[in-house]
Amino acid sequence: MSIALLYERSETDELGIKHTADQLGIKLEFIPFRKIALTLFKDGYSFKTKGKDYTSTIKDVAVVLNRAQSKNRRLFASHILETFGKKVINPSLIEFECYSKLRTLLHFWAWGVPIPKTVYVPCDAVDTTPDGKEIHNEPDIADLLQDEIALNMGIVVKPDAGTHGRGIVLAKNREELVANIQATKSSITNPVGILAQELVEKWFYDLRIIVYKEKAKNPVCHPSALARGGFKDFRTNTYLGNLVFEAALPLHVKELAAKCARALSREHEAYIFALDAMISIGKDKPVDDETLKQELEKAALAFEPVKKVKRDDTKLRDFAAWNTQLEAAFQVYRNSEPYQKVKGFIEDSIEKYKSNVVFHEANSCPEFWENTRLASGLNIAIPYLKGAQSLIQS
Ligand SMILES: Nc1ncnc2c1ncn2[C@@H]1O[C@H](COP(=O)(O)OP(=O)(O)OP(=O)(O)O)[C@@H](O)[C@H]1O
Ligand SMILES: [Mg+2]
Questions:
Q1: How far apart are CA 94 and CA 270, in angstroms?
Q2: Partners of 128 in beta bridges
Q3: d(Cα 88, Cα 2) in Å, to the nearest integer?
Q4: Residue 168 and residue 235: Cα distance in Å, rounded?
Q5: How many CB atoms lie within 10 A of CB 50?
Q6: How many Cβ atoms are within 10 Å of 109's Cβ, its own excluded?
Q7: 229 has which bridge partners?
Q8: How far is residue 59's CA from residue 84's CA, in Å, rounded to a whole number?
Q9: CB 116 within 8 A of CB 201
Q10: Ligand 1: which of 361, 370, 372 to mutate, judged by most atoms within 8 Å of the beta carbon?
Q11: pLDDT value at position 188?
Q12: DSSP letter, residue 200
């Protein structure tokens, strides 16, 4: 019985999993999950592309690493394969919880994990009556939010299901708040009203923390997080071009991260989460913004060669050679003085304000090869593969 990688498109993360499996001597099967026909019939199923029949591959597989990119498709993929008797990382229950920011937050809250103050209003910005009249709910929704969160401190409105910081907007006055609510769109992925949060007074970065579990072992929080930072926007995720740094985590934060994983996974035996967390440091900043900005500018210059390698389109053709270049470029960036300085600022502030940490999201299929792996030192492909092996060895 073997391990399979299910994917929609083969990007660097999927190539990285394949590369790591080769290095570890683990045989990996591949299951495409786009132009395929899954057919259910009496007492059986088939799973085919136009050119190839994957049915027997699937029958022989024990564990599937689910790397479908769209949240809906990923949820379907886990359900399908579980129904076929396979173990999946991550299982559908975890996909279901991580799909929604509100569901995730509810579990964190129920387990006593600190979260940003969150308000959910199950009403869309605009309702349309059967005779086509529009009812505007924005002022009422804004009132409900303002009653709970002080507007002058900032109200963040975000889609319940989203990625890459898309649709996450900040308002500091009534006009902006009403406009932000107006701009929300109910859709298939976000059918459920308005989700809002207090603006966490983080400094210039947030954290991506990895927790994983193998069967019969405790969840492990990797001791270093990926810190993503910059002053471009209040959203600090890497997709928006922010810089990346390693950040060593205090025990308190690691313990909370493991609790987040327990809250979302119940009794599941093997899984991987990338948790997003922020540290509120308020106005008392450890270093003045000018000094910090200067170091960040220098770090941005030192990061340019890494970006250049990332843009290089040989990556999909000669992955191993491209990866060697990427690792070498990152090593130079990591050794640079501004990187080390900013890393020091981040780590000092985490240590000082660790009791102000809040967790706000869990990603069940994180991107990792180009940033998280290099900054945190953890190749997530390893816990994926070891987690899968642990499920087979029972
Ligand atoms: N309540 C908040 N207060 C302050 N900043 C916030 C808040 N919520 C989100 N952010 C900022 O916005 C960024 C994106 O938020 P979030 O992680 O919720 O969105 P996302 O679309 O899931 O992004 P990704 O896919 O990169 O995880 C965070 O990295 C953080 O910097
Ligand atoms: Mg996020």
A1: 11
A2: 134
A3: 12
A4: 8
A5: 7
A6: 14
A7: 205, 243
A8: 8
A9: no
A10: 361
A11: 62
A12: P
> Bridge partners of 275?
209, 362
For residues 269-290, b (16+ Cβ closer than 10 Å) or e, as one string?
A: bbbbbbbbbbbbbeeeeeeeee
Supply the pTM of this predicted model.
0.95
Mean pLDDT rounded to a whole number for the chain: 94
pLDDT > 90? residue 318 = yes
The residues, ordered by sequence, that sit 6+ positions from 294 with a Cβ below 8 Å of its Cβ are none
Q: What is the mean pLDDT of residues 229-234?
A: 86
Q: What are the backbone angles phi and psi of residue 253, rounded to the nearest 5°?
A: -70, -40
Measure 20 CA to ligand 1 centroid, in angstroms: 30
DSSP code string of 205-225: EEEEEEEEE-TTS--EE-SEE
Measured CA distances, 219 to 20, 250, 258, 291 (Å): 22, 16, 6, 38
Cα–Cα distances (Å) from 222 to 20, 120, 307, 379, in that order, read 18, 32, 25, 11
The answer on pLDDT for 134 being more than 80 is yes
- Separation of alpha carbons 328 and 332, rounded Å: 7
Mean pLDDT for the stretch of residues 207-216: 97
Ligand (nearest to CA of 69): 1
CA of 6 to the centre of ligand 2 (A): 23
Please tell me the distance from the alpha carbon of residue 299 to that of residue 361, in angstroms, as a whole number: 27
Contacts of 64 (CB under 8 A, 6+ apart): 3, 4, 5, 6, 31, 77, 81, 86, 87, 88, 89
Structure tokens at 273: 């989460």
What is the CA(278)–ligand 2 centre distance, in A? 10
Q: Is the CB of 160 under 6 A from ligand 1?
A: no
pLDDT digits (tens, 9 = 90+) for 338-378: 999 999 999 999 999 999 999 999 999 999 999 999 999 99
Helix and strand numbers (H, E) in the chain are 13, 18
| The residue type at 175 | E
